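::Amino acid chain::
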Amino acid sequence: MEEVSFVRITEPAPPTIFGASIATSLTAEWLPSGEVKLSQDGKLAFPDVPREAGVYRFRITAEETSRSYIGESVNLRGRFSSYRNPGPTQATNLRLNALMLEHLEGGGAIGLDLITQIGALTQGDSKQERSLSDKAVRRLLEQAAIVADEATETEPLNL
């Protein structure tokens, strides 16, 4: 009778459960999508946008000032409808509705930029295809865009 023995030559590395560092890269490009205008009934009129997830930026410009507001939504068209007709408890919608109406009535312009597609999310050496339908990815991109805009001469309206 023969005897067989199995001997482990090297110990396997313990599984990585929690990362020791954060090294994330996400690439996206703003696409100009038109201008916010005043409708005949004096309400905000938004460009035609898709009913899909994305990140948006209002570029609020006048002769001497540039301001921006950046947000995210699972349904862009629905989100802009809430800015057009804000409910009584929707503080951000009420604030932005009033600000945009005043700005447009005073002759200013409001441009709208969207991001609805992103490149791969890179974490370390690993690339992962991700979608803006994932709220965590939208919020990551939204916050990165807010930080990027802070490096410009644009006054941020995000509180």
Q: What stands out?
A: The radius of gyration is 23 Å. The chain has one domain: 29-156. The longest strand covers residues 31-38.
